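Cross-check.
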Amino acid sequence: MKSIECCHCRKLFSIKAKKCPFCGTPNIHHKSNQPKKWHQKTSVQLYIISFAIIIALGFSHIIIASRTRTGLPFDFAFKRSFGFRETIVDVHKIASIPYVTAKIKYPKSCEVLQRLGYIDSGDIFETAMKDTLLLKFKDWQSEFEISISDGGVSWQDKLLGFKEDIENDSRSTDYYNNRGIIAAKQFQFETAISEFSRAINRDPTFVNAYYNRALVYNALGQQNKAMSDFTKVIEISPQSSLGYFNRGQIYLAKHEYEQAIADFTKVIDTDSGNAHAYLGRLLVYFALGDYDKAWNDVHKIESFGYKIPMELKNTLRQVSNRME
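Predicted model, tokenized:
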């Protein structure tokens, strides 16, 4: 065992001893008697400070925005309850995704941003976001339809069952259906509804009249009546995809997403190549924040050789943080 000489009494003792066993002089070579480095002196303080910072983050939101109340690139706010979820709140990210998605994925962020006035609160914000989202959906669907058909198709062009050379026979359902189609194309919507209703009164199973009347009701914004007629179309002709697809569109517009998914999926089960139904379901998944399923429908549509509207695809990339 290595020994050293005491600087006071000059006797030898073990280098591991804290002090000389003969005179009690401290052993300057022992680690306990060496001067501590700065980080050793402050280690306790560092631990305390680090712990305090961690606790503070558990009670705080750090809000990142281009303009904050403080004039800085960030702002602070207290959390309603302790936790580390959503400590960093990105105002731009929250405001750029559908409201339903934001509420599901970032409930604490939405709450604090509404509380501090970064975004509108309550029903005002929800209604505005839903209306904005619905307008985007309509634009994307219209763009997609134009790209497929090489030109827009009005809803009047989708009216069914017009027959040429129908005689003026008030007993004929086709006669009244024809009159309804003519009136609808001339924007005489109340007359069209009346004529389709006459056809239905003469034949309660006349599916074309129910379908046509539903299209007119929908154009007038009477969604509940339109949905009732589309449901009747489904009851009379359960294998027809038209009733399911159009009812799914109304469910989408009413933000009744689970029902919309069910109807669009029914169309796909009946007609696996129906790109419009895939697009409708894609938009529902987008609104719900189920981005993996939305991307699956994107790939399916593209496998048919169709192009997804660029804005839709770019927005989907942005909110899902995914490159495709």
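The mean pLDDT is 84. The two ends are 69 Å apart (CA to CA). Passed to J.P. for a second look.
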